[in-house]
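Please describe our next protein:
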Amino acid sequence: MKLSISVVGTGRMGSALARALLQSGYRTTVWNRTKQKAEPLVALGATVAGSVLEAVNAAEIIIVNVSDYQASAVLRDDAVASAIRGKLIVELTSGTPHGAREAAEWVAEHGANYLDGAIMATPDFIGTDAGTILISGPRQAFDANEEMFRALGGNVQHVGEEPGRANALDSALLALMWGALFGALHAIAVSQAEEIDLGELARQWTATAPVVDGLVVDLIKRTNAGRFASDNETLSSISPHYGAFQHLLELMEARKIDRSVVNAYDAIFQRAIAAGHLHDDFAALSQFLGKSR
């Protein structure tokens, strides 16, 4: 018989998690602060708990998906904290690595097991083969419940024993995403200022994207190897990038386009150049955003 599971938090993502579990035959209890958000799941076979304590008592695994770690404090009621002993808490709320570590420590103090996860998907991907969820924490707890995780997504991965690892990867991958999205906003602003049809921008990006993807992969690989000096395999050094970047700055200034983000890019370029890296591989810039190797 499959384990009983409770889902605490039934917003769009929490509801998607509960639906995936129900479709895979798991006995599923749900709780939400606003009860009406949980009630549509009843038609699919879910039981709506009247309280967090009731939800915890009803299940062997408690999946938490609320707005943030502060909202996860619903587990820290004294009665609820006592009830989690011997159970598995799976925190799928978006948070920080240090928040995950603190939560793991608190759960362990109360005699329960803890896994922390980062959902790298929108709700429509949950329960599909393409659904990606990163899980960190004790490997044994993950392996023992891998079937349940596979119900949530076909690309669920255990990424490390350290409980903060999933959230750290989440932040890193979101940084890549936001870099692309803010870059797109700049491209849109430039195109509109220069009266370029946005359909044309989209077509040219489709042609250019593979080149950019290759540059990102190469940047990560070279930084990992500490290969910052230009060599025969260098795809692009800082010098031509910085020259072209100055053209962008001039265009944005002339067209009165907001430069707050690109000015920060300029500051990083300038720090690297002042340190003598003008003709090094673009990867040398990675030494100026955090700890150097």
The mean pLDDT is 95.
